[in-house]
Fold:
Amino acid sequence: VIEYVDLSGYCGGLGDEIIIVATDNFKVANVMVEIYRDDGSLVEVGMADGMVGDPEAWVYYAQSEIASVAGYSVNVRVTDLPGNAVEKVVSL
Structure:
């Protein structure tokens, strides 16, 4: 389950943070983040890192600098150890 995606730390800057809180009845294996332009083209994709001290929290650091994120969207895909996945899209 993707509990929430916190985009408050993301303004399009290099290294800006996107925080994801995800739970699973066993264990979340990985969290992938994709950022899309308003025309649907992919800006970047990468894996989030687990946050120390909170097994349900993950952080993704933006790899690209974007002048304006208006109309962009963030797609988060969470996969558990058996390979089950869930996705959530959040508009900026």
Remarks:
- The longest strand covers residues 28-36.
- The mean pLDDT is 95.
- The radius of gyration is 13 Å.
